[in-house]
Amino acid sequence: MSQLPACPKCESPYTYEDGLMLICPECAHEWNADGSTNSSDAERVIKDSVGNLLADGDTVTVIKDLKVKGSSLVVKVGTKVKNIRLCDGDHDIDCKIDGIGAMKLKSEFVKKA
To answer: What is the DSSP letter of 40?
Structure first.
């Protein structure tokens, strides 16, 4: 049995092979056997309307009245949105807004609180 390298992220010795990828069971980091990281692990950079970096769990404030598609509801200016989750796509913030429910927002219409 060949000796697999330790995880480059958390230094765990318990890595295992899955096809062409090496996987760490402790931190779930995946990388190619040649040392390059998986493209899905690439750090995404999402900024708010004034250039502040956003991260999962941040609280943001809406800077513009936003109409909710398929409804007569409006998200008003100044609405605080807590515990955001960043996601891929055009609408890059996934959140829950009190009184409206789950929805996605564009980062260009919020600022970090």
So the answer is: G
Find how far residue 32's CA is from the centre of its chain: 22
Backbone angles phi, psi at 47, to 5 degrees: -115, 150
Whole-prediction pTM value? 0.62
Beta-strand runs (E) in the chain? 16-18, 21-23, 30-32, 60-62, 66-67, 74-75, 80-81, 85-86, 93-97, 101-105, 110-112
Find the mean pLDDT for residues 39-51: 75
Spell out the domains of the chain, with CATH numbers in brackets.
Answer: 1-40 (2.20.25.10), 59-112 (2.30.30.40)
107 three-state secondary structure: helix
pLDDT tier at 42 (50, 70, 90 boundaries)? low
Q: Which long-range contacts (CB under 8 A, 24 or more apart) does 75-81 make?
A: 75/100, 75/103, 80/113, 81/105, 81/110
